[in-house]
């Protein structure tokens, strides 16, 4: 892709990067940095903390199914401002709350605003605003994920040690209001409206039409690929969520483990950009059979590895799948179902990802309480990834056949 594309669209691509970076404040890898302090302050076991995380995250997924449609009716600028302000309010609540019951509501707010809506807004906008370069636009916006993953852990851990874990949430709120909100608002002072409407009309999906969400839910494809949507979220989340436990089991220093996020971020960026090119060249569905391979290898490796350097390798492998998935799913839904109802349709996938990130810590947390160490659990996750790869070979073949079938013959 020419440099001119990036320069011409720097404003909108930049807004996507800022929004995806801001999701970090509601992602598991960030919240898990506070896990030990939260469990101590509220007197929670691994299983109890995981249950709170489950309830809060699942609730956010349910709301996201409805709120995701707002991306079809509100401007990105307005919707992003509302979500950023809401997040800051919740972060202040984390700093002052002492009730376990209110903690559930606060986790719900962090997950809904951070992991859910901010990422949904950013990637939906990229997929709608760009057509022929959709894969690379989504991949570029996804650089924000890597930026947050690279910077936040090594910064947050010493900040917590310096000012305290509650005060660190105040800092997060200030960053969102003072830095993120003004930048997004300035970058999007002019939305990409003219081209947005044009591309909405010309970019249809399967059978040459724009699918509605009820129609998508009746189509075989969405149910066939949902395990692939959930799997990276499930496995990636639990590895980040239980990093304190992994440190204890393996005898590793948490501060040293935090440095691996830089490797994770760089790998995510590289794999996302390469995958974005591949999506534009071959189509998003072509990556389905292979994108879970690195994740499966990484999950398997976490079991037997004993040196802390293994943690760096594990995160690098997970990052390969994360980068590919960021670019692939961003283009997949528009490619298969069109762009007119993209916000509504994509919220299904985002809710599924949130669901995976919710159920993962719950299941694995209670298994830890029952004496099954998390590294041992990862061996089963690796086997699951292998099974999914075999499934997606069949899915890709059927999808390719359906695309070649005339619309009147489509089931």
List keywords for this structure.
411 residues, mainly alpha, 81% helix, 0% strand, globular
Summarize the structure.
The chain has 21 helices and no strands. The protein is mainly α and 411 residues long.
Give a description of the structure:
The chain is mainly alpha-helical and 411 residues long. It is built from 21 helices and no strands. Helix 10 packs antiparallel against helix 11. The longest helix has 31 residues, at 374-404. The two termini are 37 Å apart.
Structural class by helix and strand composition: mainly alpha
Give the amount of beta strand, in percent: under 5%
Gross geometry: globular
Q: Give a short account of the largest sheet.
A: none
Got a strand count? Answer: 0
Classify the helix fraction into a percent range. over 70%
Distance between the termini: 37 Å
Low-pLDDT segments, ≥5 res: 193-202
- The number of helical runs is 21
Rg over CA atoms, rounded to whole Å, is: 20 Å
Run of helices and strands: HHHHHHHHHHHHHHHHHHHHH
Mean pLDDT: 83
Question: In terms of topology, how is this protein built?
Answer:
Blueprint: H1 3-8, H2 10-22, H3 28-31, H4 35-42, H5 46-67, H6 70-73, H7 76-96, H8 100-129, H9 134-141, H10 143-163, H11 165-187, H12 193-202, H13 213-217, H14 220-241, H15 243-250, H16 254-258, H17 260-282, H18 293-302, H19 309-337, H20 342-369, H21 374-404
Helix pairs in contact: 2-8, 2-9, 2-10, 2-11, 5-8, 5-20, 7-8, 7-11, 8-9, 8-20, 9-17, 9-19, 10-11, 10-17, 14-20, 14-21, 17-19, 18-19, 18-21
